[in-house]
Amino acid sequence: MSQFSDAYDRRFYYLRLSVTDVCNFRCTYCLPDGYRPQGVNNNSFLSLEEIRRVTRAFAAAGTEKVRLTGGEPSLRRDFTDIIAAVRENPGIRQIAMTTNGYRMERDVAQWRAAGLTHLNVSVDSLDARQFHAITGQDKFYQVMAGIDAAFAAGFTQVKVNSVLMREHNSHQLATFLAWIRDRPIQLRFIELMETGEGGALFRQQHISGTVIRDQLLQQGWQLRSRSRSDGPAQVFYHPDYLGEVGLIMPYEKDFCASCNRLRVSAVGNLHLCLFGDAGIPLRDLLAADDQLDALQARIATSLGQKKQTHFLHQGNTGITQNLSFIGG
Ligand code: SAM
Ligand code: SF4
Questions:
Q1: Can you tell me which residues bind [4Fe-4S] cluster 1 (predicted)?
Q2: Which atom of ligand 2 is nearest to the CA of 31?
């Protein structure tokens, strides 16, 4: 099977697989009212076997990196088995997850033993009270202990995601930079993205990542060149810091030109873009092992519909009501 590619000659090495929509946090920009089931009960998310099959199909078509996300992926009781199932594919060299960090202190060593290679933890503020206000959970110290546990378990770098918001963290760059001076953390500021449910918050809080970029450049930070299965982050480094800073700016011109990822939702729909239209169902082809070719063919054909860019600039957020259901 040849590699997945689209009409704009982009190749897709990277699968972001959501394993659950459920989340125990209530981040203001994502699930401000908490998780509410939408005609889906918790048992109807992809099973371990279905996850095994879908990742096998992607691996056979050249996928090198899988990110497990959600909702909160670590809320799945079989999460460690999911990592192990993805690891069965030798071609998948990176197995990453994005987590709110809630279970990290307890479980990160077993995730690593099962094959997890990369870890992104969301931390929107280094102030415990503000962290609580943003996430609805008084878990700042637990998440910090989780990051320490990740290093103790042998991860040499941890990525920390922080959604850039005008009121909360745009003026706290100095605090964040002090935190990563002696820690091998890649701190990633993600520009707030507009979602169907988040229009008012977006208008209030959106601030461009260029504000951070300008400050970094003034302070002697330099841009690193990117490798092909990297995400879209612009990564900056500085000789005096062990940590790095990444900027994810989806509103920047040409953001989509380097797109290398596809998404599968927790109910098994293929999403060609985070802000695309309705997903393409794959689940009917995940029930048995002998459908691998048909599955790959459906994904390859669907890629013909992938658009050149998202339409966020026109205020079109697609069907994406919030990012918890296809995993950000
Ligand atoms: N629950 C996990 C977590 O929070 O890390 C994984 C899922 S979460 C949807 C994935 C990432 O999307 C998180 O880093 C989160 O901060 C980010 N995110 C959610 N909503 C966003 C929005 N409207 N704009 C930008 N980033 C967002
Ligand atoms: Fe949950 Fe992650 Fe969304 Fe926060 S960003 S509500 S932790 S899914």
A1: 23, 27, 30
A2: 6
